[in-house]
Amino acid sequence: MGLNYRGGRSCPRLALLVLVCCVGPLAANRRNIPRRQDRLGPPVDITLDSLNCTALSIQWRMPQQHADTITGYTVFYTEVKADEPIRQQSHDVPLSLDMFGMGQMDRQAIFEVVIGDLKPGTLHTVSIGAYGWAGRGKASMPRNVTTLSQDKCMPPAPPSQPQVIVVSDSEVALSWKPGPSEGSSPIEYYTVEFIRPDFDTKWTAIREQIQMDSMILKGLTPNDKYRFAIRATNSYGSSLPSIASDIIRMFRE
């Protein structure tokens, strides 16, 4: 009856059995817990730039560690007013299959996102975090960037009233002069609008971008009356329309 121990040799076996029973489940649980060094790291070489009064450009590179397990990034940006965050917003940048084939092997790919619809002259804090199959990684340290103030993003002033000469039954020659201010950047092109006072209630814009301060406009309707206006455009937008030209009538066919 009972157990018979000889020379104490059975005791270590019993102790070993108990140790395995106790340690085995604990080791299994630890294997299911992600190691700290496996957590996705933040991007590197982050650069922020204010594109204009309402938009920011954010660029970064993928870190070499865990690059194969990253499936996208989230950009967090928060408006700051009187040193207090107003609201945090986020923008996801999922990695497409094309991105994985463009420089990912040497980790040289540059990612960029443009955040728009912001307020002029407003401070924002920006941070970026990766996400993947294992979850979300640690976000980068917040960085500050400010959109340009409104006075640095001005469109041009309206051009002068256009002068119109009827050339034929379907063509006119238009000419004008730049307005008193180009705005915050040089004028890139002009556009023309017209209206037929006897028929139209709205102006029609011609999509052609004109690099000069004159042009020949073709394809008009013989014997119809027309008025014309000009807009100037720079990198920050288009001007208001110029004063409308005098009313002209096209020649008869």
Automatic annotation (TrEMBL):
Q: Is the keyword Ligase assigned to this protein?
A: no
Q: Which SMART domains match?
A: FN3
- PROSITE patterns attached here? FN3 (PS50853)
Keyword terms of this UniProt record: Repeat, Signal
| Domain (Fibronectin type-III) ranges | 42-150, 158-253
Q: Which domain of life is it from?
A: Eukaryota
Ranges in coiled-coil conformation: none
Q: Where is the signal peptide?
A: 1-28
Q: Membrane-spanning residues where? A: none
The UniProt entry, under SUPFAM superfamilies, shows: Fibronectin type III
- Name-wise, this protein is Pikachurin-like
Q: From which organism does this entry originate?
A: Crotalus adamanteus
